Amino acid sequence: MRAVLALAALAVGAAACTVRPTGAEVAWMAAGEDWPALAERLRARGFFDLPATASGPRDGACLEKVRGGALAGIDVVRACEGPGAPRVWRMNTHREDWTELSVSR
């Protein structure tokens, strides 16, 4: 019984380590907004300005949100200004490298 409870706790903990809004949700937002409007919405949802020393993809001014820990990995969603439209990436330190997300409308 203890093993089942431990596994359930791990599953709930892993789900709690996901950035909200998710990368896919941010990509949908970015598809219909210009950078200033998107940046304002993301800052209201806990995204912060990306420091110049940060590694990984970037394209102009960027905002990022990070959540996670040692068990499920660190989940990162990054949105950048881009030359014509905002660009969005996500990654998880345990499961995936940087992936650019886009939406066709």
Q: In short, what is this structure?
A:
The chain is an alpha+beta fold.
- What share of residues is helical? 25-40%
Which structural class should the secondary elements be placed in?
A: alpha+beta
Q: Enumerate the strands of the largest sheet in spatial order, edge to edge or round the barrel.
A: 1-2-3-4-5
Distance between the termini: 48 Å
Helical segment tally?
Answer: 3
* Helix and strand element order: HHHEEEEE
How would you describe the shape? globular
Low-confidence stretches: 3-9
Largest sheet: 5 strands, antiparallel
In terms of DSSP E residues, the strand content is 25-35%
Cα-atom radius of gyration: 15 Å
List how many beta strands DSSP finds.
Answer: 5
Mean pLDDT over the full residue set: 85
Structural commentary:
This protein is globular. Helices cover 31% and strands 29% of the residues. The protein has 3 helices and 5 strands; from the N terminus they run αααβββββ. The N terminus is likely disordered. The N and C termini lie far apart (48 Å). By secondary structure, it is an alpha+beta fold. The chain has a 5-stranded antiparallel sheet, with helices on one face.
